[in-house]
Design brief:
It is a single chain. The chain is an alpha+beta fold. It folds into two domains: 53 residues, wza like domain (wza like fold, 2-Layer Sandwich); 82 residues, Outer membrane lipoprotein wza domain like (Outer membrane lipoprotein wza fold like, Roll).
């Protein structure tokens, strides 16, 4: 039987029959040994394998930012954090009121428009969290001559 269990933010696993188990700070081999001790009485064969899967995911930031490209995160990421990771806005060009997020879940594409100028000014407290493979586009302001 295979089971995938995510480590919570507090560094613990919630496991059936044995309750909460500390996982953060342990190597996979150490965690495996600990789980074998905890589950020993319930196992017919004393075999258990612990592997580590990365939870890192990419988002793509493009347009009027200083370092456009892929941003990889292993924790929930907001649009503002992703832009910061991309070097921040190009303040000479960026249109902070019309930032677009393009999200494709495999069956449909969704488009979101964010006003980060209002967010930065404290007028909008809504925090937009990105999902894996989102594209965040910071357009350039239209300048009249």
């Amino acid at each position: 039987m295979n089971a995938i269990q995510a480590i919570r933010r507090d560094g613990k696993l919630a496991l059936a029959l044995v309750g909460e188990v500390q996982a953060a700070g342990m190597t996979p081999a150490d965690l495996e040994k600990n789980l074998l001790e905890l589950y020993g009485p319930q196992l017919q064969t004393k075999e258990l394998t612990v592997t580590l899967e990365s939870s890192a995911f990419p988002v793509y930031v493009t347009g009027a930012v200083l370092k456009p490209g892929k941003v990889v995160s292993d924790h929930p990421l907001t649009a503002m954090e992703a832009i910061s990771e991309a070097g921040g806005f190009d303040m000479n060009k960026a249109d902070l009121k019309n930032i677009r997020v393009i999200r494709n879940d495999g069956t449909k594409t969704q488009y979101f428009t964010l006003n980060l100028k209002a967010y930065i000014a404290g007028k909008n407290t809504y925090i937009f969290h990105l999902k894996p493979s989102d594209i965040l586009f910071v357009p350039e302001r239209f300048v009249w001559f």
